[in-house]
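Dear Dr. H.,

I hope your travels went smoothly. While you were away I took the liberty of generating a structure for the chain from your last submission, since the lab meeting agenda had it listed for discussion. I wanted you to have the full record in hand beforehand rather than looking at slides cold. The sequence, exactly as received, is reproduced here:
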Amino acid sequence: MRRKSIATFLGVALVSTLMVGAGAVGATIDNDTTAVVAYRGVPRVTRAVFNDGQPTTTSTTFQNVPGMKITHYLPKTQNEMLLITVSAFTKCDDTDGPVDVWCEIRVLVDGVECNPGGRTIFDSAPASSNDGNAWASHTHQFVCKRDRQGNHPIQLQFRVDQSGKFWLDNVVMSVQAARMW
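The corresponding predicted structure, in token form, is as follows:
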């Protein structure tokens, strides 16, 4: 009886391995900064980008974060939900204090802002409370739906709402895609 259950277990393990292997569309690593992994029929991380520089902005209009652009490919016309996660170390300072400064981010897919739209405050600086070293770790998620075949550019942007400075460090943006039935 014991041999039969071991043989059954090994058979199931082999078939499972073959099924997962057959489902893999592709996996590549490009200069240790991007990864592409996709599996048919299950939610998947389609791409992730990493920027270990320290992009900064003092702009009150949204600016592209350097290196934080992904192109997601939808192979055929179908409904697909994108879950975009942004994580980073941040610092938000008031430069003309004492003022409250909000440091904001947004994600655009095909040039359209993802949900939640409007003001997405990633960090903030209460008036006169900054000592210049207030680094913190933050994560935020955005959701977009795509329903047409082709390439869909995804861009991370940042800004300050008034006189201030916004630093990002070790920024990671990843995209998970799931087919909607």
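Two observations you may find useful: The longest strand covers residues 164-179. The longest helix spans residues 2-23.

With kind regards,
E. W.
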